[in-house]
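thought: fold this chain, then report.
action: predict
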Amino acid sequence: MAIEAALIKPVVDALLALFRESSDLKLKRSAERALREAIRELLQANPDENRAQARIAIAKAAGLLSEDVVLAEGMLEKHRATRAATRGKSATGRRRARQEKLAKPAGKEAGDGQARG
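observation:
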């Protein structure tokens, strides 16, 4: 019996190591997929920052250390900075204000020319 137990333990340890390795590979693949989705999300016109941040966190928690993690974090930071800088500004509001200023002096000059004529 002692011989059989001595033979079984290495086999069980090898099987457990294989299962652990396969689950690590699966975790790594899912983390890489989450990171790709985060980068894809940040490339959209109106990205969902919370979703991208969650996917980056998944990749970090899985222990994925690559340039893609740094790239995704940089993209998220730049997007947040750009959004904060442009918050409250609308292109149509600025155009209207400029057109009103240009329209007023032109109307006065046309009225002055008709009164003299």
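thought: worth noting. Residues 2-91 form one domain.
final: tokens above.
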